[in-house]
Structures are given as C-alpha cells and as structure tokens.
Amino acid sequence: MGKLPTIGRKTAQRLAFHMLKTPEEEAEALARAIVELRRKIRLCRDCFNLAEEELCPVCSDPRRDRTLLCVVEEPTNLISIERTSAYRGLYHVLGGALSPLKDVGPERLRLRELMERVQRERFCEVILATNPNVEGEATAVYVSRLLKPLGLQTTRLAQGLPAGGDLEFLDELTLRRALEGRREY
Ligand code: ZN
Fold it and tell me: Ligand 1 centroid vs 36 CA: distance in angstroms?
C-alpha cells in the first residue's frame, strides 16, 4: 500500500489493520476490482485522459466546445477543472511537467501529439493550465513558444494562485476564478 501515491507509512498501517478486520470475501472482491480497473483503463486516443473506451468521456461528448483546448499536466488536474463546471472545452494531458531535477525533458511530454493536434483541429484558444509552481511555469513558457508561430491565442490561468501549489489541491471556487480570469500569455 505504501507504494501507492499519497499513501504514507501511517496510512498504509491503517489500511493494513482495516484489511485485517475485513471479511476475506470482501478483500478478494477489492483485489478483483483492482485487477479489473487495471485491465479496463487506458488513455484517450485524442487527449490522453483516462478512458475506458477509445475516447474519454470529455472527447466523446458532442456538447463540448471544440474550439477551446486546455493543456494540463496530469489527468488529476483535468478532474479538478471539470469539478468547477466552468470549462466546456477539450483537454490535452501532457503527462507531466518539464523538470531538469527529475530529468524530465520536452521529449518525455506529449508535445509532439499536442502540436499535431493543434495543426489538425480548429482551436481558437489554448489555455495553459499547468500547475502554479516552477515546473508548471517552465512548461507553460515552453508550450507557448511552440504555439506562437501558429498564431493561436494562448492564455494562462490568472495569477494569485498559491505559488508552488498543484491544481489538484485547490478549492473549486479559487480554480474557477483563475480559469475565468485567464489572460493572454
Ligand atoms: Zn479525451
């Protein structure tokens, strides 16, 4: 359990004690659910969000605004933005942020896929919604430079977000305001 993200030693211990008190059938059902999840989940063909089909629920929804593209680091950030209900466009999940310390260079992110997509589709605006920390800012700058020659409008979430933070941990109202107050980048 300690190998799972955000599960520290204490939480792992609590889970272990809980499992000890759980009937064996229930534990087996949980194990089966995890295996099933691993088998079913894949990445969306277009945006790399988590999906059960070829396209994720956002990409396959005909009511989404296909002229807006929001670039995020991870599917968890996409989920945070979806929770605000303030955004009706599409997404592109980069799969991380540029980080020299963690040895993540541009080739490790889905930038080629992003470029192919913006050239193929008709987006009017690309919103850079990478996290408000050093890596997220560096990534936003890098992506905006790639997009510049295409003459696409590029915007960034409004400033005033807690610096060094992760969109995942922002409350809905703050994130909604940042999205609505986005500005030219
Ligand atoms: Zn998708």
Answer: 21
Domain that holds residue 114: 67-156
* 70-111 pLDDT, tens digit each: 999 999 999 999 999 999 999 999 999 999 889 999 999 999
In a domain, 46, yes or no: no
Q: Where are the beta strands (DSSP E) in 64-115?
A: 65-72, 89-93
Helices (H), 41-168: 75-84, 111-120, 134-147
pTM summary value: 0.83
Q: How far is the CA of 59 from the centre of ligand 1 (A)?
A: 4
CA distance 49 to 54: 11
* Number of domains within the chain: 1
Q: Ligand 1 centre from 53 Cα, in Å?
A: 10
Q: What's 82's domain CATH number?
A: 3.40.1360.10
Does residue 54 form part of some domain?
no
